[in-house]
Specification:
By secondary structure, this protein is mainly β. It contains 3 helices and 44 strands. The strands form 10 sheets. Strands 18, 19, 20, 21, 22, 25, 26, 27 and 28 form a 9-stranded mixed sheet that branches. The protein is globular, with a radius of gyration of 24 Å. The chain starts with a helix and ends with a strand.
Length: 638
């Protein structure tokens, strides 16, 4: 079997692209695409575990955005105009859970990103995914993403990279996407059938024909009347870059498993690219009628962000794209002079790519009582090094303004490949890669609270200190993107994923998943948090009056303070089984406590009182911010 990485490298490097379809280059015309294939996957728990190390492959090279085709504005060795010069106190956040994620299956770069739900974390990388509980225990995988799409077939059975995973908070569902490549290109999208990310998924394939849908980014935009999963792509044909596709999938139909769910797109001019779609954080949905928002960095003099609005009407099959709103920001110079590679590493002359020609994932928007705020970042040059430039925007869907901006470079270390988000208290968390000629690539984070001076971050903290550099074939490829997410359980806890090297080598990166919370965030910052696994229990047919075997629920305190359990109760035809504490078993008990990072278990039995489907719940009442927590129970009496 030919590995996906080999296929895509041949296609791209050989420019094996045929004539460009007119619809994909005709701007101001809605491009309507229906699924070329639809299927339902096997449950993720039934997919093969594939964590072996393959021959090193290069994933699809992110093609240059229009910025790299332009002359650099001014010398890139100049100091950034909004460089933060004030040294701030150590970041006022408490670090929480920290565990190793997926290890490289032999591909570069990692494309590492994650999504967080009430009880699960799903990580995707090039070319695999895995499901964890919030203590870091693996519940499913790692498995190759193409295994998820096996039943769909076609181009999606050869998925090749640029994966994205989303947790759709309003629907309590999950989405995993990837580029498909075979005889042509496709975007492959999987939407979970239930709230269990280890279960089965609805599978959709959307053809792009001969055009490469490069560097796709997806987001959730759940408005009431035209609910969408937004998407962006850089479109490349035989003649090179054609512009960005700004799109929306029919979220309502995809959640229902409807095989006619359309994707509606509009093309940007070829002078614009690498847009990010708006993604809602927090419990409040966008006001009905709010168009999808898309943002990119233009690096004109003075600096500019372009924000476009896409109004979707799935019933009519139309998408209307606005002219760009120009957001003036401080001018900046392209990292490394051309947005490419120059990041040094310890012990080697090989340097790493910054992807400094584009904004970095994600474009996160949060609703507050009287306004909305959005955050986004990118890598810029600062006096010969690479630093993180970040922005906080007010009212992005209305009269958008820049509330604050800053460039974080507290010393000579290079910082890039960042992602940031904002919690419900207005605290901002920023994670990123670091490296220099005297340090191996590592992972750090910083952040700010509303009382900090505008444009400033507090002093950073380390998540992982790397112990190796990336060398050899394709050694410039690093990250491509990372992800900072806010936990929906408390809207305070940040989760960040990035890559690092344990040893100097080629294609043998590791990923790390870590959490932290700011101490002043209500419901987070040192509080307990409950993770339950599994999230539901099911029994088969049990004779009326007969007691089943017991099933186990594990409660984990994934927070940073002691959990106090006040009550545990089962309802319906279900009962808790008494347990004794042993060296191997720690039962959850009323009036008991669970230390941060520790776990306890309960066991539940089913005794049907009549025939047919019987339902109930196990309810935990405690001092966590999301108390009470419930595990649904289902069984059948016969």
């Amino acid at each position: 079997m030919v590995r996906a990485g080999t296929v895509i490298r041949t296609l791209i490097c050989g420019l094996a692209l045929t004539a460009l379809a007119f619809a994909k280059t005709n701007q101001n015309k809605t491009i309507v695409t229906y699924p070329s294939g639809f299927a339902v996957s096997q449950p993720v728990t039934e997919l093969p575990i594939e964590d072996s190390f393959f021959q090193t492959h290069e994933a699809p090279e992110p093609q240059p955005s229009p910025l790299r085709f332009r002359a650099q504005v001014g010398p890139w060795l100049q100091e950034d105009p909004v460089l933060q010069k004030e040294v701030r106190p150590m970041v006022s956040a408490t670090q929480g859970i920290d565990f190793e994620g997926i290890i490289s299956p032999g591909y570069v770069p990692s494309d590492s990103n994650l999504a967080v739900g009430p009880n699960h974390i799903v990580e995707v990388v090039n070319v695999q995914f895995a499901v964890y509980n919030k203590s870091g225990a693996t519940l499913a995988g790692p498995t190759n993403i193409q295994n998820l799409f096996t039943t769909l077939g076609g181009n999606c059975s050869g998925t090749v990279g640029d994966p994205i995973v989303l947790y759709d908070r309003q629907a309590d569902r999950w989405l995993i996407s990837d580029i498909g490549a075979g005889s042509s290109y496709a975007e492959c999208v999987a939407v979970s059938k239930t709230n269990d990310p280890t279960g089965a998924y609805y599978l959709y394939g959307y053809s792009f024909g001969a055009n490469l849908n490069d560097y796709p980014k997806l987001s959730t935009w759940p408005t009431a009347s035209n609910s969408a999963y937004l998407a962006t792509y850089n479109i490349f044909g035989p003649g090179g870059f054609n512009g960005a596709d700004l799109c929306g999938f029919d979220r309502t139909k995809m959640l229902a498993g409807n095989s006619s769910a359309a994707q509606l797109c509009q093309m940007s001019p070829s002078s614009e690219g690498s847009y990010l779609p708006s993604e809602i954080d927090g419990p409040t949905t966008p006001t009905d009628g709010t168009p999808g928002l898309f943002i990119t960095w233009q690096n004109n003099n003075p600096g500019e962000l372009y924000l476009r609005k896409l109004t979707l009407n799935f019933a009519a099959g139309t998408a209307t794209l606005s002219s760009p709103t120009t957001i003036s920001v401080a001018n900046s110079s392209l990292a490394c002079g051309n947005g490419g590679q120059c990041v040094p590493q310890l012990g080697t002359t090989q340097t790493l790519d910054t992807l400094g020609d584009r904004l970095m994932y994600r474009f996160a928007i949060r609703h507050f009582a009287d306004h909305d705020r959005a955050v986004v970042n990118h890598a810029v040059a600062n006096g010969g090094q690479v630093a993180v430039r970040w922005y906080e925007l007010y009212d992005p869907a209305g009269g958008v303004t820049v509330n604050q901006q800053g460039t974080f470079a507290p010393d000579s270390t290079y910082r890039w490949m960042a992602s940031l988000a904002e919690d419900k208290s207005g605290d901002i968390g920023l994670g990123y890669s670091t490296s220099s000629s005297s340090t191996y690539p590592g992972i750090r984070f910083t952040g700010r609270v509303p009382g900090d001076p505008l444009g400033s971050m507090e002093t950073e903290a380390s998540i992982v200190t790397g112990t190796g550099s990336q060398v050899g074939s394709h050694a410039n490829r690093w990250g491509d993107y990372t992800a900072m997410q806010v936990d929906p359980s408390d809207d305070c806890t940040f989760w960040y994923v990035d890559q690092f090297q344990k040893v100097t080598g080629t294609g043998d990166w590791h990923t790390n998943i870590a959490s932290f919370a700011f101490n002043g965030c209500t419901g987070g910052g040192g509080g307990p948090a409950v993770t339950l696994a599994p999230t539901s229990l099911k029994w088969g047919k049990i004779a009326v009056g007969v007691t089943s075997g017991a099933k186990t629920v594990t409660l984990t305190n994934s927070g940073t303070a002691t959990l106090d359990i006040s009550n545990i109760a089962a309802s319906g035809d279900f009962a808790l089984k008494a347990l004794k504490k042993t060296k191997l078993v720690t039962p959850c008990v009323n009036g008991g406590t669970v230390a941060a990072g520790a776990s306890c278990i309960i066991k539940v039995t089913f005794t049907p009182t009549q025939t047919g489907t019987r339902t109930g719940d196990v309810t935990f009442t405690d001092n966590a911010s999301n108390s009470p927590q419930q595990v649904p129970l289902t069984g059948t009496g016969k």
